[in-house]
Amino acid sequence: MGMVLGKITVETPKHEVIHSTNDYEIRKYSPSVIAEVTYDPTQFKGDKDGGFTVLANYIGAFGNPQNAKPEKIAMTAPVITKESEKIAMTAPVVTKTAGNDKLMTMQFILPSKYATAEEAPRPVDERVVIREEGERKYGVVRFSWVASDKVVAEKVENLKKWLARDGYKVSGDFVLARYNPPWTLPPFRTNEVLIPIE
């Protein structure tokens, strides 16, 4: 019942709030190890969350873990998604885009017991990449309900305005962090838009 009402019972990334306003927070995140998959949403019938099953299979959320050990890996929150530009590969592999020039990247932050990428179980699926992220700083705005494209775009625009107003320099594109499973009732969902800053 707790997950339906938005209770977050899994590990979340370690961070320090270094500045807080009524509108947003500035957070410094500790280094972490992530599992990520980058994909073309058109291969998943336009589903921007199409990479979720690939990552869930890696950690063993739906049965046997799809990693070399095989070791079941605890789910953490949030699930992170971001858009990225398609980049053509160099020879001998050539890729062509079919109109949609956006790829999606979905990330699971692995439990903190994995301090380096080498400590994490090696994925069986070659689409899953394990990598380390160093310490980073973000401007963050939290919100509930459904993280629709329209709502996220509004949150990003407002956060950029607030960061500029307060003298922060944006250093990259936003990411969307969702903390709850899809069956959580919308008013109890926790979502965040994070924009990297210098």
UniProtKB/TrEMBL annotation:
Top-rank taxon? Eukaryota
- InterPro entries documented for this protein: Reg_factor_effector_dom_sf (IPR011256), SOUL_heme-bd (IPR006917)
Which Pfam families does the entry link to? SOUL
Leader sequence residues? none
Q: Which family does it belong to?
A: Belongs to the HEBP family.
This protein is called SOUL heme-binding protein
